[in-house]
Amino acid sequence: MVALGAVHAGVKLGNVHVFDYYRGALRTIVEEGVLSFLRRISTPYITRAGSHYDPRSSTYSQRLLRRWADRRSPVERKTIAQTEASDEESAARG
Asked: Where are the domains of the chain?
């Protein structure tokens, strides 16, 4: 009995959270049109992918390391800033 109740609850949960989502998405596709829907849905991903490969944008790891460096002493911060500046100059040259 308990197993049957668990199966029933699982099916109901799946129906509510999975199939309802896809039903709603299909309704939206029918209303908007496939191309418009795909453009709207994929734009944030394409934008992020493009900026991900932009050498001028920093990664999450670089931002985290910079935050850690900012918490250190001013002398260490100055050294890191000088190193980053020389790295940027080298990248700009070559």
From this structure: 1-57, 58-94
